[in-house]
TrEMBL record:
This is DUF1918 domain-containing protein. Residues 44-66 are annotated as: Disordered. The lineage of its organism: Bacteria, Bacillati, Actinomycetota, Actinomycetes, Kitasatosporales. InterPro entries: DUF1918. It comes from Streptomyces griseoflavus Tu4000. Residues 1-57 form the DUF1918 domain.
């Protein structure tokens, strides 16, 4: 999983009725776009995340294919 500053991190709800949690990646702390990421969520909360399998990165700009 790779991201750049400005991409969205989406944590999908784990149970029925739980909404997705969406945040903007404000800092990439790993090398070459790898986690961890500092994320600012819609409610203003900021945290450091190492995304799991229930997480998706939505890129704001196209990333080159490797």
């Amino acid at each position: 999983m790779r991201a750049t500053k400005g991409d969205q991190l989406v944590q999908h709800g784990r149970v029925v009725g739980q909404h997705d949690k969406v945040g903007e990646i404000v800092e990439v702390m790993g090398e070459k776009g790898n986690p961890p990421y500092r994320v600012r969520f819609e409610d203003g909360h900021e945290g450091v995340c190492s995304p799991g399998p229930d997480t998706e990165i939505r890129h704001t700009t196209p990333h080159p294919q490797h």
